[in-house]
Amino acid sequence: RAAYFERMKADREPAGPEAVLHFTPCVGGMAGPYPCSNVDLMEYVSHAALGGSDGNDIWGWTDPVSGREFALVGQSDGTAFVEITSPSDTVFLGRLPTHTGDSTWRDIKTYQNYAYIVTEGPGAGTGLQIVDLSNPLVPVHVTTYTANNISTSHNLWIDTDAGIAYACGAAPGGGMHILSLANPVAPVEI
Length: 190
Prior knowledge:
- The strands form 5 sheets. A 4-stranded antiparallel sheet has the order 5-6-7-8, with no helix packed on it. It has a 4-stranded antiparallel sheet with strand order 9-10-11-12, with no helix packed on it. The chain has a 4-stranded antiparallel sheet with strand order 13-14-15-16, with no helix packed on it.
- It has one helix at 2-9, and strands at residues 20-21, 30-31, 34-35, 44-45, 55-62, 69-75, 78-83, 91-97, 106-111, 114-119, 128-132, 142-145, 155-159, 164-170, 175-180, 188-189.
- The chain has 1 helix and 16 strands.
- Helix content is 4%, strand content 41%.
- By secondary structure, the protein is mainly beta.
């Protein structure tokens, strides 16, 4: 068990900004440099290759029209958008850099064709970023919701059936803000 945790601690970015590992089978408890147990590595793309630094969260979204699949990758300095429709041939689409300071935490959830991003990053007005994913190859339409002075948030959960977002550990006050997403680009605190 100790050896496993030593391998986990060493489970960091491979050297080089272009580090990509393609299909690597799990053999003898390792898939390339990564520990595994009966799970093959389909593809690995480093945070550096995604234009960022360390990562802290990932969320999946499927385009309801095309069926294409995407990974939204939270990084300390922004959010990366990656098409994963073919798991062994991912496509880096671009990234949304942080509009405040770096943070060890960024959380992402989706509702309909929108990504909602919160962070504990420093600076007033961090709020809730809303990204229109209608054209996932160009994730550029971004708005920031900061009603009632939501400046940061640790976590986000969205009840997709009810269209309600819960921003947890939100500053100021460290409490929860409950938002109606009846209009997905203009949440209303309820």
